[in-house]
Structure formats: C-alpha cells, structure tokens
Amino acid sequence: MSAWQPLLDWWFGTEGSATEVAAARQGLWFGKRDSQDREAEVRFGALVEQALAGELQGWTDDPQGWLAQLILLDQLPRMIFRDTPRAFAGDSLARPLLRDGLDRGWDRRLTPIQRVFAYLVFEHAEDLPLQDRAVEFFADLLNEAAVDERPLFANFLDFAERHQRVIARFGRFPHRNAILGRASTDEEQAFLREPGSRF
Fold first, then answer.
1. What is the CA 192 to chain-centroid distance, rounded?
2. Which domain of life is it from (predicted)?
3. Based on the structure, what is the number of domains in the chain?
4. What is the rounded CA–CA span in Å between residue 196 and residue 177?
5. Within the chain, which residues score under 50 in pLDDT?
6. Are 114 and 63 in contact (CB under 8 A)?
7. How far is CA 149 from the centre of its chain?
8. H or E element: which one contains 99?
C-alpha cells in the first residue's frame, strides 16, 4: 500500500458514485466536530507537519499522491489547527503544488469527487484570478457530470461562486480577520453579521 492510501481511504471512504461518497463523507469534509479534528491530528498530524516542511515531494509523482498532499496542506490544517493562524499555514504551499499538477494533467487522472479537493485550493485563495479559475473548474465538473450527479456538482459550483463574490468585494475573506489578527472594516463587520458569511 502506498504511503498516502490510508489518508485517501479515510477522506473518501469506500468506492461509490460521487453522490454516494459525498453523502457518506460530507460531515467529515465540511462539518466542525472536535472529535473529527482530533482524529485528523492523531492519524495524520505527523504527515501534515511533513507536508508543511516540504518533506513529501516524492508524493507528487503520482496523481493520487499529489491529491493526498493537497489534502494534507489545504484541508487537514483547517481541522487540526482550527481557529488559529496555522489553519491556513499550508495554503501558500498548496497553490504552486496545484498549479504543477494541473500542468501535468494530474487532475484529469482523478475521479470527479477527488477533483473537488484539488480545486478547493484555489477556492480558498484570497486572490481573485485564482477564484475565477476555481469557478471555471467547478463549472467544468458540473458540465461533465451525469444527470443524477448534477445537483451535487451544482452545489459545489454555487459555493465556489459565493467565495468568488466575497473576494471580488473585499479582496480577502473577512471571517479570517479575527483569526489572523487583521482589523475588519465597517463594511466587513456588517457583512459578517449576515447569515452564511463565514462558510
């Protein structure tokens, strides 16, 4: 078994359609549970630290290893270091890693539901051109989806568009300001009082 397979098995669960996988794993991916955050730290915290230290470069020679490293840099820090600046510590490393894999066509070697967790790297960026690319990628996933999977991928596209609109308006995600020690403008404070503004 490859070094990255236990992480992918944990993240995506058993094989199935994209809709089946998402239904089973949605709570892990987007829920906020202390027990899940602790499990992520216990099982994969050491790998996250290795990824942050740039010690998993060999993983990028395989599409699945590349995806696993993206998850270690982009997703797991948001769980393990939730509500601290380290939650975003892998973002600056994940972006060039994503670009390199895109240039190599690695995303096209993944299943559609796996591709979601590559493209989320750009959706998390406080950078409008990268947000625009994220929306394009999620639109492609929707266009390629089978009829019964379209609602799932339409939802992913909707979230990408919502992130894009926030960056187009503010140039950053206001909900990160307090965590990162950034002062919020009056407009951002008003926005943060709106339902759904914190993703």
1. 21
2. Bacteria
3. 1
4. 16
5. none
6. no
7. 20
8. helix 91-103
